[in-house]
Specification:
The protein is an alpha/beta fold and 153 residues long. It has one domain: P-loop containing nucleotide triphosphate hydrolases (Rossmann fold). 25% of the residues lie in helices and 30% in strands. A 7-stranded mixed beta sheet has the order 1-7-6-2-5-4-3. Strand 3 and strand 4 form a beta hairpin. The relative contact order is 0.26. The structure holds adenosine-5'-diphosphate and magnesium ion. Adenosine-5'-diphosphate binds next to helix 1, helix 2 and strand 7.
């Protein structure tokens, strides 16, 4: 299994996709989120975080660059690199240190960090289609493939 795709008819379907992914993701994984402004990347992340037990708001890290959520045994780091002017900001900010065996890293606008960002385990691409969204979820590592195969069952 290396690819899953489908249509998300409304916001609740995007939240549900996040919740579905939450059930198979674990520490040490990097999930990259691709798609234009308003495609649903933060909405998806909100569904994922709430399914992992985060009770409060999920604010877009557009200005803070990263929001971290302690959800034992996992810590989720939600990055939004939209405002990066240069990929080297990834190193300047010390973001490499956020990757660990007990952290799940979710990255909006990963291309802004260029090759400073390690390759992802999984990438989700969201695009506007009529009143809803299309999604493509792709695995890029053995770990990512394992997650997708657990989704399929
Ligand atoms: P991004 O983080 O990609 O910029 P957001 O998640 O902040 O996007 O905003 C997406 C907007 O689109 C929100 O207003 C949300 O309610 C809406 N939305 C999310 N998923 C869907 C969907 N499947 N169909 C229609 N609207 C959606
Ligand atoms: Mg966003």
């Amino acid at each position: 299994t290396s690819l899953r795709q489908g249509f998300l008819a409304d916001e609740s379907a995007t939240l549900q996709l996040g919740a579905t992914l939450a059930a198979v993701l674990h520490g040490g994984i990097q999930l990259q989120l691709h798609g234009d402004l308003g495609a649903g990347k933060t909405t998806f992340t909100r569904g994922l975080l709430q399914a992992l037990g985060h009770p409060g708001r999920v604010k877009s890290p557009t200005y803070t660059l990263v929001e971290s959520y302690s959800l034992p045994p996992l810590t989720v780091h939600h990055f939004d690199l939209y405002r990066f002017a240069d990929p080297d900001e990834w190193h300047d900010a010390g973001f490499g240190d956020y990757f660990a065996t007990d952290t799940l890293c979710i990255v909006e606008w990963p291309d802004k960090a260029g090759s400073c960002l390690p390759p992802p385990d999984l990438a989700l691409e969201l695009s506007v289609c009529d009143a809803g969204r299309n999604y493509r979820l792709q695995a890029f590592s053995e770990t990512g493939h394992q997650c997708l195969s657990r989704l399929a069952t």
